[in-house]
Amino acid sequence: MDQIKIGKFISERRKSQNMTQLQLAEKLGITDRAVSKWETGRSLPDASIMLKLCSILKITVNDLLNGEAVSMEKYNETTEKNLIEMVKQKEEADKRLLSTEIVIGVTSTAFLFAMLAVGIVFMKSEKPIWTFIVPVAIGFIQFIICMSFALRIEQKAGYYECAKCGHRYVPSYKAVNLAMHMGRTRYMKCPECGQRSWQKKVITK
Predict the structure, then answer these.
(1) What is the pTM assigned to this prediction?
(2) Cα 200 to Cα 163: distance, rounded to the nearest angstrom
């Protein structure tokens, strides 16, 4: 999708409705800075507000994603093309998120061990006990926070595939958090067949 073209189209439609960026932003419950980013091609509208935006601008989602009004003759063709493009973009975004998860995990673990090492050095140097407790506590606190964030990324990015029926789905954060796991493979109950199995993380649905 051409973000610059889409941005110009949003700007044109907004102006045709005699609205300022601020007025459009207020209708959508966002900042005018976000609207400005759309119109300059630096970002795309979030999927959660896309339908409302199209309603305000009096266009279809297909029009928006094409950056122009789509004729009925080409409607089905462009719809399919846009859906494929959106799926590709989600897959690429999920891959980046899962790479970020690895970086967070490695960095936070390294920091935890570093703080443990600092605490041990202080303890061996016969300094007050708090000089050991403080760095260790800092290390564990950051580790827990980072791991919680990394787990949220893993839960949201991609899908889990049931080993029994092949159903792919996004489980709840609680289900992922409480599940036994080996890397990104987790032992969970499938919402489709109701059976428990070791479910692998996959990108595509």
Answers:
(1) 0.59
(2) 8
pLDDT in tens, 133-144: 888 999 999 999
| 76 occurs within a structural domain | no
- For residues 151 and 177, the answer to whether their CB atoms sit within 8 Å is yes
**Which residues have C-beta within 8 Å of that of residue 167, sequence separation ≥ 6?**
161, 190, 191, 192, 193
- Give the integer Cα–Cα distance in Å for 199 and 104: 23
Do 25 and 106 lie in a common domain? no
Q: What is the pLDDT of residues 55-90, one digit of tens each?
A: 999 988 888 888 888 766 666 667 767 776 777 778
Residue by residue, DSSP assigns 6-29 as HHHHHHHHHHHTT--HHHHHHHHT
* Structural domain range at position 8: 3-70
